[in-house]
Every structure is written in C-alpha cells, then in structure tokens.
Amino acid sequence: MQEKIIFHPEKLDADYTYNISGNFQEFNLKTGDDVTLNALLFKADSSKGVVIHYHGNSGNISHWENRTNIYTDLGYDFFIMDYRGFGKSSGTIESESQLFEDAQLVYDTLLTYYNEENIIIEGYSVGSGIAAEIALNNAPKELLLLAPYYGLKDLMRHTYPVLPTFLLNYPLATFERIPQINVPITIFHGNEDQVIPFNSSERLSKLLKTKDQFIPLEGCGHNAVQSQEGYLNELALILGTEIRSN
Description:
Blueprint lengths: L1 H5 L1 E2 L14 E7 L5 E7 L7 E5 L3 E2 L9 H4 L4 E5 L14 H16 L7 E6 L1 H11 L5 E5 L5 H8 L14 H4 L7 E6 L7 H8 L7 E5 L11 H10 L8
Parallel strand pairs: 1-5, 4-6, 4-7, 7-8, 8-9, 9-10
Antiparallel strand pairs: 2-3, 3-6
C-alpha cells in the first residue's frame, strides 16, 4: 500500500500523441528490466545546456505545456521523464533503489548529448529527493530543489502520524545527502505550502554550504513555485541569462 499512498500516477495510452506547443522530441528509454520510461526533451532556439527535471508524485508530463518555455526562453533545453506507471511509462514503482536507477538512466542518456558542466538537475516535491541522489553521485552544474522535504519519513510523520515510519520503503533522506553534495544547491520553498511544510526547507538550509542558498517564496503555496518572481529571477541568474521582457 505504500506506493498507493505516496504516488498518484495518471496513465496515458501507449499510442497517446502529445499535443504540446514548442519544439520537442519524445524519448522512450529502456531500463535493465525491460520497462519503458517515456520522456520529452524541449529544445531552446540556441541551447546552452539542459535542465533535467524530476517531477512530483502525481499527474504526468502531458501537463507541462505552459511551463517548459520558462527554461527554453532562457536558452536551456528542458528534459522531463515520467516515472514507472505514470503517463506512457510502463511498469510500476516498487522500491527506492529502482527510482534512483531510473533517474540515473535519464542522466546517463543526457550525458550522450550534453557536457556534464552544462547539465542542471531540478527536483520538485517528491522528485527533490531523487534529484538530490543524482546530484550526489554525479557532477552537474547545479542542483535546484523546489518544495523539498527533509526526508520522506519526516513528511510521513507530519501527514500520516498514525503510520509506523520504520516500515517505509522510501526514506528518500534528503537531509543525509545535502551535506555530501559538492555542486551548488539552491532551495526554493513557499512559506504557505500546505503539502510539504516550509519548515522542511528551513531545516535543510542549516545543512547547506557557503556556496549554496535558500530562497523563501513569500505567499507561495506548493504548486506555484515556478510562477514566482523569486524563482524566475534566480533561475535566470543560474542559467546565466537576464529575464526577457514580454
């Protein structure tokens, strides 16, 4: 039952055609156990690198039509993959190690197209713990964590206080990884997040190194991080591009 509590996938038919504006390429990555991971790569007009995004615990990548231009307008390609059982991806999520292996497959695939110093890892919500694991074991340019949790056991204690967390198969202990990650880290979190407590990032911020930063987003809830001026301004600085006026 853990997977049903944590993950809420929205399936798509295998022959579903994405009706998304912009220049994008569809990928179908094969795992070692013959599962297909479906992904989309959105292309900038003149690419300086790629942002690999590990999304949250619900929906699928078909809902990203209105957000990919945030990155492509700043000159970076944008890659997003559906986890097992989400969207057009086959299989089911069965373990934390499986999530990490699939995420590493995505990273290794992108290494064949981009220099590692031009790869930025971004994780949102549940995806923040996955992104932290990938940043720990690789050398991307930067790690961006959007509405991250301190650890999933900690979040489960907050959300489901009656459940025994020692049985949780998905600890996703972000707090253990943060001090060991050598690349720059930026944490964004809305102070009105009703899903993952703002205090999670406040606690994580105490583990950051001098080159890292924590950016609170005033008046921001869980699903609005990428529309906030504080996020957009900092993203433009990280990607090395001033925000273009409309």
